[in-house]
Amino acid sequence: MLYLASKSPRRRDLLARLGIDFDPIDLDIPEHRLPGEAADAYVSRVAHEKARAGLGHVAGEPGAWVLGSDTEVILDDEVFGKPRDGDDAAAMLRRLSGRTHRVVSAVWLVSDAREFEAVSVSQVSFDALDEARIAAYVATGEAFGKAGGYGIQGAAEVFVGRLDGSFSGVMGLPLRETDRLLRRAGLLAPVEAVA
Fold it and tell me: The pTM is what?
């Protein structure tokens, strides 16, 4: 049985696209970068901690696998988490305006006996955003609960001049990488080679 260690409705929707049955586990895992911790290592660690905490909730269940994921916006090695309020969201968008940032999405799939990891790194280039556009976007409420203060699958999609990488990864769960992990664990059938 597969479990998703996430409160995110976006991750639930994305995982459902792979056609696999799963049950969600709601967890609150602290997301604090350690002193001196590299940004990419932080994203991987948080995803791993989510998966391991989820596994603790289903301990002893035969055949249980838990998927944990974390996605962060990174600019100049600074991790942009979820904004605290409207002012914080606007400040993030000002910093991202007219710049290219990285979105790192780490996925861990764990069981009692095995662990697998995959990482997706996308480059996202924002157009220049004026104050009125930033204020209008923040007023929609869409900025909240999302790393970097924006959701690429919503109104902020028009801010993106270029995306190199995974659209679903920027949303919060890179489907290509997740599909490969699930197949590696035997939770999805292997893909037949095309002759």
Answer: 0.93
